[in-house]
Amino acid sequence: KELPEGLVDILKDKKMHIATAESCTGGMLSAQLIDISGASEVISESHITYASSAKERILGVSHETVEKHTVYSAECAFEMAQGARRISGADYALAVTGIAGPSGGTKETPVGTVFVGLSSAEGTKVERFNFRGDRARIRTLACLNALNMLRKELI
Questions:
Q1: Of 85, 114, 84, which Cα lies nearest the Cα of 99?
Q2: pTM recorded for the entire structure
Q3: Between 44 and 1, whose confidence is greater?
Q4: Torsions phi, psi of 131, nearest 5?
Q5: Considering 5, 38, 68, 91, which has the largest number of Cβ atoms within 10 A of its Cβ?
């Protein structure tokens, strides 16, 4: 089975729900899960919070976090995941933020830098990824790695 299908099956078996909060992936992450028949049983909601203001207003990311660490940070991904889980009531929340390019990178945070947050009752964790390639490849790899983070948590 493909990764998204396997995750939907596991979540159904466990009677658990997931929410997503996406920035650079722009809905691609939730679409990969929603493509699977039966996903309606496990997906609570999905938020595309591309603008900083949306991250703050919808997910509750603090303005101080955005100012001090930027939206391309582990701190932002952490707060996005926690916020998505809190507002949805889901068992798990996945959040993705980063720089898909081709512009926008800096020396400290180059294009291809992606942060994935995963929040559950056990806590919230964030992984940093550094992908190479064009915008489409970076977004695809961000989704794959986010789904794999969830898979590792579930098994």
A1: 114
A2: 0.97
A3: 44
A4: -100, 155
A5: 91
